[in-house]
Amino acid sequence: MWAARRWWLPSAVADELDRDAGSPGRSRRTARDRLVDFCCFLAAIAVGLAAAQSLDHRADLPRALSVADQVLGALSCGVVWLRRRHPLALAAAMVPVGFMSDTSAGTGLVALFTLAVHRPFRYVAWIAGTQLALLPVHYKLRPDPDLPYLGIIAFSAVLSLSVVGWGMFVRSKRQLMLSLRDRARRAETEARLRAEQAQRLAREAIAREMHDVLAHRPTLLSVHAGALELRPDAPREEVARAAGVIRESAHEALQDLREIIGVLRAGDAGDEGRPQPTLAGLDTLVAESREAGMKVALAQRVVEPAAVPASVGRTAYRVVQEALTNARKHAPGTEVTVTVTGGSGHGLTVHVRNPPPDGEVPHVPGSGQGLIGLTERATPAGGTLRHGPTPDGGFEVRARLPWD
Q1: Is 267 exposed, middle or buried (0-12, 13-18, 19+ CB in 10 A)?
Q2: Is pLDDT above 50 for 113?
Q3: If you average pLDDT over residues 172-190, what whole number do you get?
Q4: 385, 374 contact by CB (below 8 A)
Q5: What is the torsion angle, in degrees rounded to the nearest 10, for the CA atoms of residue 289, residue 353, residue 255 and residue 368?
Q6: pLDDT value for 19
Q7: Is residue 304 within 8 Å of 341, Cβ to Cβ?
Q8: Percent of the chain surpassing pLDDT 90
Q9: Phi/psi at 234 (5° precision)
Q10: Rounded to an integer, what distance in angstroms lies between the CA atom of residue 18 and that of residue 76?
């Protein structure tokens, strides 16, 4: 369909649209160009024939000048076919030719129109201004037998200005078409980039949420399963307790996974499922870790903890959860200290620290995405999160969250 429509567009517009579509512009003329060129050729011939008939009725004009005038007019009609390739050169050449030959007036007008379509106004102003300045001299030397001197000058000036105005209108219309096309292309590109960015942010949010929700439970499973593997002769009560923790952790992980999958399928977070954790859930989180065999000391010194915004409390919960998970994997058997302080107007500070582990710790795979995700949670809200080893060989995570 585009190939068929291209033949009826101006070549300049068609080449620009080809470049927009990703294909190289073709310089060959379209069917529309050939039709317009043929019409301009006929118009130049028609004006030349009319001027030739006027020359035949002028007895004061020598026969040699009349023949020379018509020869120049015929040659100028032939160069109309070059108007698209060399519009400025043709228009400049037609200024002296038009001054010497009345039958080339049609070609002069066509050249002036082509110049106005394909070149900036400064070139049109110079050529048209020169032609208008030569009109009084031309008609003084070769007066028109049918019209008065001032009348023929005014008629020629109006005709030339009309041709220039028409050409500038065509040029502005083409530029507007290309401008609208360019703006539409930029809008499509920006919309595609916004969509890609939204998809990327959504994927990052989903990955961060799944890591925060699910990483804690499988770590408990891994720790207790490893303990059972290393101590197959453990007392029955200890084995039963570890199996209960494994069962409960697996159940909670499956429940969290079902909720996340349900949200993804629905495409809307909604209000279904269990509520998101807040600062009040730290006691339950610490108790859960203690049941798994961890040593955790929790110190909450928060003024009016019930007034903590939900988003701030949820981020603080995730920080503690991720820090406990990392301590369980990389420093088993150590006592983890969790300190939460702050108040309204002063911000909320979360500090989780663990000493170095005793002896060699088995390698536990980890990608560090949890701490990266926590940083992505804290930074956009105006908070900060720092983590790293301590001088004694331990590890600490310190987060400061805004609380207006």
Answers
A1: exposed
A2: yes
A3: 89
A4: yes
A5: -140
A6: 54
A7: no
A8: 5
A9: -65, 155
A10: 33
What is the predicted pLDDT for the residue at 352? 92
- Class of residue 86 by CB neighbours under 10 A (exposed 0-12, middle 13-18, buried 19+): middle
CA angle 205, 207, 213 (to 5 degrees): 100
Burial letters 224-240, b for 16+ CB under 10 A, else e: beebeeeeeeeeeeebe
Q: What is the arithmetic mean of pLDDT over 206-229?
A: 67
CB 342 within 8 A of CB 349: yes
Cα 206 from chain centre: 24
* Mean pLDDT, residues 192-203 taken together: 83
| pLDDT per residue as tens digits for the range 243-293 | 777 777 777 777 767 766 766 665 554 444 556 778 888 888 888 888 777
Say how many C-beta atoms besides its own lie within 10 A of residue 393's C-beta: 10
State the CB neighbour count (10 A cutoff) for residue 373: 21
CB–CB of 19/40 below 8 Å?
no
Token representation of residue 89 = 């050169």
Query: Which residues have CB under 8 Å from 278's CB, separation 6+?
Result: 308, 310, 313, 314, 317
Q: Compare 219 and 91 and report the one with higher pLDDT.
A: 91
Q: Structure tokens of 35?
A: 């039709």
Phi, psi of 183 (to 5 degrees): -65, -40
Rounded to the nearest integer, the mean pLDDT of the chain is 78
pLDDT given at position 215: 64
Q: 329-371, pLDDT tens digit by residue?
A: 788 888 899 999 988 888 889 999 998 887 776 555 555 666 7
Tell me the backbone φ, ψ of residue 380, rounded to 5 degrees.
Answer: -60, -25
Is-contact 314 246, C-beta < 8 A? no
Integer CA distances (angstroms), 359 to 21, 232, 324, 333, 343, in order: 66, 21, 19, 10, 40
Residue 181's contacts (CB-CB under 8 Å, 6 or more residues apart) are 16, 17, 20
Question: SS3 of 336, please?
Answer: strand
Q: Which H or E run includes 388? A: strand 384-389
> What residues contact 168, with CB distance under 8 A and at least 6 apart?
116, 121, 124
Residues in the chain: 404
Q: Which of 112, 152, 159, 160 is nearest to 136 (CA)?
A: 152
